[in-house]
């Protein structure tokens, strides 16, 4: 799709998208490390600049944005954070027409080549210029890009994420790739159109200015790199970096997966329009042999994925040969590294792309939707695909992968404050990660790099509510030899009438456990818990009314457990009780540990041995490899496991 924009030398090179015409002599390995470190530093500097100069809570405080650096052949060079794609900009604006100081913008999901998932994700791209020779005209040698989730871009509800949308036209303003700044001069007309469509125009204007300015600064930093070492030398380092990633993943990751074919599937539970059901996402993983015609690689076949939803959970994954989706999913594979420390060292950049081949179903599925299908809650699909890949790899490697996690959902309140001004407080709360074959899962993590919950001091000073509690949701982590991480429990008491919104999945289905581990607890939002007006909100809702004085309790998902919970050492269960991660009842029911309560809780070892023996005897002979929790039966017509849950 993108070969028309590539240089002739790159198009005919030994490796696709390569910047140097032939492999040639390798660059100085020390210089390669210097260049890699420089890129990572620039990426971090861009993100730091945005966080310090933006205005909206979502960007400035929650850090729901990320930056990326790409070469002139559109390859993602950095791996600390994921980003969108440069492909749609290069498609619509030939590189030779670009000028220093230009800034390009887009958020149109269907014209983003798969790099933008929903309209609130606004993307700015800045070309980097350098001279190949001292007397030559500067040419495009790289790109700096930033995209983030903004508070509001129009549409039929505050936040631009209507849970009942049936077309993208209800979700906000769609902007195809445009030139937002022309040689350093902002396009005020375009900016005015965008801010006019937003319920938060001042915050949107400030955020866009911060992102454009930060990327322009990053472009200047990269120009300095090219001027210092020369374009040819720096580009040879880029090639070496990509080659190193490819070989590292082939040697350390792909080698752990046995040759063969494996299939697994998981589900989103609702789409905001139809009644809850199993929205299937399926992956058939094929690991090929080195002597295969296409070489040693992983083939991810998504055939069997369910039809596109009426509601907004669709994701445009099949554009640009799945380039964005490959880099989105590849971090899961790092769990096969020899040690956790080594896993943390492995970045995901364009070097993983030659190792993964994608096969998509025909148009009209959850990951191949047809315009104008809505997409604002596509997180339900792209997060689930992370779990589907983890599950199918777990089948191949005898469970030596983490159990499931669901570490992102949007919750918030909106209305008028005491001065009569409209406000929107939206938060992207995390959840527990899955237990691993060597350790418990982590508590309250988030899939977006460096993201965080909103500080209580900030929200209470700006919005008309009080945060009465923010802590860990006890018993939310799935039981296992290694317990799943815990989710949040947050209580908000409104001081003025308002409306509550939630864009969340895993409220019926749970994060699955693996190899004997149990599923975690699902997401829930309850109004007036324990009070006369107690009721549970739907996990996908736009405008639930809340009266002044009422409390909203939010509990986010716990990660799935790994391994047999009856094999968890008693002292670890007792420690969890002391840390208030597991209750006395949970210890008995989930782990078969009988606790004697008191000032210093202790364990009745005889009763524990008896109870654990009883629980083992009650198990069936052929237990599934994956535990989906009790919610699965509710949506499957009574079945407690799927056909692919056995190995």
Automatic annotation (TrEMBL):
Hydantoinase B/oxoprolinase domain boundaries: 28-565
InterPro entries, A to Z: Hydantoinase_B, Oxoprolinase-like
Protein name (database record): Putative hydantoinase B
UniProt-recorded Gene Ontology molecular function terms: 5-oxoprolinase (ATP-hydrolyzing) activity
Coiled coil feature spans: none
GO biological process, one term: glutathione metabolic process
UniProt-listed PANTHER family: 5-OXOPROLINASE RELATED, HYPOTHETICAL 5-OXOPROLINASE (EUROFUNG)-RELATED
GO cellular component annotations of the record: cytosol
């Amino acid at each position: 799709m993108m070969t028309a924009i590539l240089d002739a030398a790159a198009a005919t090179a030994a490796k696709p998208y390569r910047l140097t015409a032939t492999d040639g002599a390798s660059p100085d390995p020390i210089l390669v490390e210097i260049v890699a470190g420089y890129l990572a530093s620039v990426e971090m500097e861009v993100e730091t600049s945005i966080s310090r100069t933006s205005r909206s809570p979502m960007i400035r405080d929650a850090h729901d944005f990320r930056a990326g650096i790409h070469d002139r052949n559109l390859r993602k060079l950095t791996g600390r954070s994921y980003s969108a794609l440069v492909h749609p900009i290069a498609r619509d604006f030939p590189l030779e027409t670009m000028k220093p100081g230009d800034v390009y913008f887009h958020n149109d999901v269907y014209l983003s080549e798969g790099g933008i998932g929903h309209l609130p994700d606004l993307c700015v791209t800045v070309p980097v210029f350098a001279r190949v020779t001292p007397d030559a005209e500067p040419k495009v040698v790289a790109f700096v890009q930033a995209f983030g989730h903004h508070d509001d871009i129009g549409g039929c509800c505050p936040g631009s994420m209507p849970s009942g949308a049936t077309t993208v036209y209800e979700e906000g303003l769609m902007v195809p790739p445009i030139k937002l700044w022309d040689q350093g001069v902002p396009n005020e007309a375009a900016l005015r159109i965008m801010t006019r469509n937003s319920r938060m125009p001042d915050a949107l204007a400030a955020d866009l200015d911060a992102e454009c300015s930060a990327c322009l600064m990053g472009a200047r930093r990269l120009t300095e790199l090219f001027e210092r070492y020369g374009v040819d030398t720096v580009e040879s380092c880029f090639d070496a970096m990509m080659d190193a990633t490819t070989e590292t993943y082939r040697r350390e990751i792909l080698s752990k997966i046995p040759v063969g074919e494996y299939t697994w599937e998981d589900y989103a539970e609702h789409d905001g329009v139809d009644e809850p059901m199993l929205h299937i996402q399926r992956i058939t993983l094929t690991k090929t042999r080195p002597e295969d015609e296409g070489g040693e690689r992983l083939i991810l076949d998504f055939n069997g994925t369910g039809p596109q939803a009426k509601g907004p959970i669709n994701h445009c994954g099949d554009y640009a040969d799945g380039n964005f989706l490959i880099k989105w999913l590849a971090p899961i594979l790092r769990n096969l590294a020899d040690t956790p420390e080594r896993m943390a060292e492995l970045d995901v950049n364009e070097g993983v792309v030659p190792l993964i081949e994608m096969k998509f179903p025909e148009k009209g599925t959850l990951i191949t939707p047809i315009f104008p299908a809505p997409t604002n809650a596509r997180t339900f699909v792209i997060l689930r695909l992370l779990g589907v890949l983890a599950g199918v790899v777990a089948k191949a490697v005898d469970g030596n992968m983490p159990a499931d996690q669901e570490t992102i959902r949007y919750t918030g309140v909106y209305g008028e404050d005491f001065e009569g001004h409209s406000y929107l407080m939206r938060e992207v709360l995390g959840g527990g990660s899955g237990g691993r074959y060597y350790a418990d899962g982590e508590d309250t993590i988030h899939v977006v790099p460096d993201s965080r919950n909103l500080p209580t001091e900030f929200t209470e000073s700006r919005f008309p509510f009080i945060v009465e509690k923010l802590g860990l949701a006890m018993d939310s982590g799935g039981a296992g030899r290694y317990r799943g991480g815990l989710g949040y429990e947050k209580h908000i008491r409104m001081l003025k009438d308002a409306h509550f919104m939630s864009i969340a999945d895993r409220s019926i289905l749970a994060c699955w456990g693996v190899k004997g581990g149990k599923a975690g607890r699902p997401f829930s939002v309850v109004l007036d818990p324990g009070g006369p007006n107690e009721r549970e909100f739907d996990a996908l809702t736009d405008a639930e009314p809340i009266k002044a004085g009422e409390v909203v309790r939010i509990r986010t998902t716990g990660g799935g457990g790994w391994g047999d919970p009856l094999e968890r050492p008693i002292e670890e269960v007792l420690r969890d009780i002391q840390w208030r991660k597991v209750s006395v009842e949970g210890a008995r029911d989930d782990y078969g540990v009988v606790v004697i309560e008191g000032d210093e809780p202790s364990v009745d070892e005889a009763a524990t041995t008896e109870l654990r023996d009883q629980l083992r005897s009650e198990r069936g002979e052929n237990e599934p490899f994956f535990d989906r929790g009790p919610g699965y039966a509710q949506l499957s017509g009574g079945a407690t496991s799927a056909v692919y849950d056995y190995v």
